[in-house]
Design goal:
Largest sheet: none
Number of helices: 17
Number of domains: 1
Radius of gyration: 22 Å
Number of strands: 0
Shape: globular
Structural class: mainly alpha
Order of helices and strands: HHHHHHHHHHHHHHHHH
Strand content: under 5%
Distance between the termini: 25 Å
Low-confidence stretches: none
Length: 438
């Protein structure tokens, strides 16, 4: 199960892998069903915790699958397209959920094998790095603005999702190793975590140049540094001895963050007047340029400068999407382009198809119930993890929080990204399962 899941994480967001992904999903589900029988027998022979609340994330995921069926039968506005999504994306998401759940059970019993799972995520970025270096050797240009179209991931959002999944997993794993399991990991493991994170950050800042990827990574790593810093301070106060090793562990990542952020700022000027751009963008009725920028052009900020296109469009589209959810609380029913279908009821000239925020697009697709089930599943994982003594509890917190953040700022609400979401929900939930002593 770990090998299949790791391979899926390696290829899930890569181009031209749909046939292999489908094969692994079917094979993984068959193995998962076999393992489920084994774990069911094991549960009958030993005493496991059976508190219903520990299944909350999986229950909420199940409610989401049921809501998709109910929506198709009772509220669908385009039943043919919605049925097509049901038999493709949602079917694969269900299989991914089954595989994730059983993989989590295996990792619950064998926590040291978790790093093999995250290695699958990193291998995709190693492939990206090799592909980039080949393109660099041919062009001689370090930063290629349109490279992401020809990259193995095919776009920026796949890079953002998988990269921050890896960073959040490493933040949780390393935080537990440092605070709860100090001294039991070799320096090779710490080097793997560091080099892996550097590879992802290099991809974010230079190879792909993605601001939302950098922003989410900064939040994840910044929270990690804060957590470790508080732990180190408490540890030093109790021991009354300075810990140079702990200071080194904290300062090195912070120094690297500063270097990568500076590199990113040199390439991407979108942060220069970000607040001013957003202030203009949220006024969607007063400034209608967002509906069709080719026709109306881009507006100016209060200082007289033209807004940065990406800032303005994303903020305006998100604002329009939130208003559309309020007007359509049960959703339109399609994962792709629901905003484009709904928005024209209020703004006939609008040409947009996506809000570029997965949660908004998901809410437009399946309404407030859909958001409650999916966001509720991730939030319940964080709540369960704070009460858990599992060695995976910090990993669950960071990965769930990372998914909440990525789905807020990136358009990852369709096709394989939904499969990854439900895989992770089930994985994190069952990783936290605990059993009583026999």
């Amino acid at each position: 199960m770990i090998f299949i899941s790791s391979t899926l994480l390696a290829i899930w967001s890569l181009k031209n892998t749909i046939a292999l992904r489908n094969t692994l999903l079917v094979l993984g589900t068959l193995i998962a069903v076999f393992l489920l029988k084994y774990y069911a027998k094991q549960a009958n022979s030993t005493k496991y915790r059976t508190v219903l609340t520990q299944y909350a994330p999986i229950i909420l995921s199940g409610c989401m699958f049921i809501w998709v069926l109910i929506h198709l039968m009772g509220f669908s506005q385009e039943p043919t397209l919605q049925l097509q999504e049901l038999t493709s994306t949602w079917l694969r998401a269900f299989l991914a959920c089954v595989i994730g759940g059983l993989t989590g059970l295996v990792l619950r019993d064998h926590p040291k094998r978790t790093q093999w799972l995250w290695l699958g995520l990193l291998s995709g970025f190693i492939y990206l790095l090799a592909h980039y270096l080949e393109a660099f050797a041919q062009s001689g240009i370090a930063f290629m603005p349109n490279y992401y179209f020809s990259s193995p991931f095919g776009n920026k959002i796949n890079t953002v999702l998988m990269g921050n999944l890896f960073i959040s997993a490493i933040c949780g794993s390393s935080a537990y190793a440092i605070t709860q399991n100090l001294g039991k990991h070799s320096w090779a493991m710490y080097l793997y975590w560091l080099l892996g994170s550097l590879t992802v950050l290099f991809a974010f800042t230079t190879i792909i140049d993605t601001r939302n990827g950098v922003g989410v990574a900064l939040i994840l790593i910044g929270s990690w540094a804060l957590y470790i810093g508080v732990f180190a301070l408490k540890h030093q106060m109790n021991s009354h001895k300075p810990s140079w090793k702990m200071a080194f562990i904290i300062l090195i990542p912070l120094l690297l963050i500063i270097i990568f952020v500076q590199q990113h700022l040199n390439i991407n000027r979108g942060w220069n007047h970000f607040i001013e751009d957003v202030t203009v963008a949220v006024q969607i009725d007063e400034t209608p340029n967002w509906q069709d920028v080719r026709k109306y052009g881009y507006p100016k900020t209060s200082s007289g400068e033209t807004v940065y296109p990406n800032n303005y469009e994303r903020a305006a589209w998100a604002t329009a999407g939130i208003k559309s959810i309020a007007a359509n609380p049960l959703g339109y029913g399609l994962l792709e382009h629901s905003l484009g279908k709904v928005i024209r009821e209020s703004y006939p000239e609008a040409t947009i198809q996506s809000s570029h925020s997965a949660w908004i697009d998901f809410g437009l697709a399946f309404g407030i119930p859909g958001l409650i089930f999916t966001m509720g599943a991730l939030i319940s994982i964080i709540i369960l993890a704070t009460k858990s003594s599992s060695p995976h509890y910090l990993t669950a917190i960071w990965v769930a929080a990372g998914l909440l953040l990525v789905f807020t700022v990136a358009e990852v609400s369709s096709k394989h990204t939904i499969e990854i979401l439900f895989f992770c929900i089930a994985l994190l939930n069952t990783m936290l399962f605990q059993k009583n002593a026999e």
